[in-house]
Design goal:
The protein is mainly alpha-helical and 107 residues long. The chain is built from six helices and no strands. The chain has a single domain (6-80), classed as MazG-like (Helix Hairpins, Orthogonal Bundle), CATH 1.10.287.1080. It binds phosphoribosyl ATP. This is Phosphoribosyl-ATP pyrophosphatase.
């Protein structure tokens, strides 16, 4: 179990996006703009789906990590805070009333 969160990754992405470090993939990707980043999200989503259908857990793990990373970069490029996405997910959970039940049950 790791304590690393999407919020941690989001902070790293924000710092790398702000940097002028030419060796940073995040910096380079941000420079290409939202359309290119959105294309990468689409590609990574397809690769994730293919890995899931193939049933290869290791491949799926890697592709899902690529997808989440690129999705966070896309949100950053469009100035949509990750916190807003999490708040929307929380709102949906609150609507169903399942949050309390889930916290009482083991994973
Ligand atoms: N999580 C990631 C991450 N996941 C995937 N990738 C990069 O995403 C790229 C995807 O590879 P592809 O083959 O699909 O794309 P490509 O051919 O390199 O590029 P395109 O021409 O298709 O755009 C690879 O270069 C990976 O290194 C990531 N790059 C960075 N991070 C995180 O971002 C942090 C900052 O990275 P830098 O910005 O590089 O310092 C790192 O410490 C990581 O935490």
């Amino acid at each position: 179990m790791t304590g690393f969160t999407l919020t941690d990754l989001d902070r790293i992405i924000a710092a790398r996006a702000r940097s002028e470090d030419e060796s940073s993939y995040t910096h380079k990707l941000m420079g290409k703009g939202p359309a290119k980043i959105a294309q990468k999200v689409g590609e990574e989503a397809v690769e994730t789906a293919i890995a899931a259908v193939a049933g290869d857990a290791r491949e799926l793990t890697g592709e899902a990590a690529d997808l989440l990373y690129h999705l966070l970069v896309l949100l950053k490029a469009r100035d949509v805070p990750l916190a807003d996405v999490m708040a929307e997910l929380e709102r949906r959970t609150a609507q169903t009333g399942l949050e309390e039940k889930a916290s009482r049950q083991p994973d």
